[in-house]
Amino acid sequence: MGEQFSGSAQENLVREEATKGLNPGLVVLLVIGGLVLLFLVGNYALYMYAQKTLPPKKKKPVSKKKMKRERLKQGVSAPGE
């Protein structure tokens, strides 16, 4: 009986050693997840920094044709007509 017990105890030790350590799939998932999270946080930080420091975009100049059209829609006659 003593021999059977010591044999099964040794098998349990071998199994425990094999299952210790982290699952490689979990490690890869955590690393990739961490990198994606870091990327998103970095992009957000850069976006906020750019919003504070960069000057606002200049609007495109409106063409004379469009100005004339808008004035006619509003009922104001264009100058020179």
Automatic annotation (TrEMBL):
Q: Where in the cell is it found?
A: Nucleus
- Molecular function terms, GO-annotated: DNA binding
Q: Which Pfam families does UniProt cross-reference here?
A: S1FA
Compositional bias per record (Basic residues), positions renumbered to this chain? 55-71
Any one biological process term the GO annotation gives:
regulation of DNA-templated transcription
Q: Which InterPro entries match?
A: S1FA_DNA-bd
Query: GO CC annotations?
Result: nucleus
Q: Where is this region: Disordered?
A: 55-81
Sequence intervals crossing the membrane = 26-50
Record keywords, A-Z: DNA-binding, Membrane, Nucleus, Repressor, Transcription, Transcription regulation, Transmembrane, Transmembrane helix
User: Has the keyword GTP-binding been applied to this entry?
Assistant: no
Q: Describe the family membership recorded for this protein in Swiss-Prot or TrEMBL.
A: Belongs to the S1FA transcription factor family.
Function field: DNA-binding protein that specifically recognizes a negative element (S1F) within the RPS1 promoter.
Q: What protein name is recorded for this chain? A: DNA-binding protein S1FA isoform X1
Taxonomic lineage of this organism?
Answer: Eukaryota, Viridiplantae, Streptophyta, Embryophyta, Tracheophyta
Query: Which gene holds the coding sequence for this protein?
Result: LOC105044626
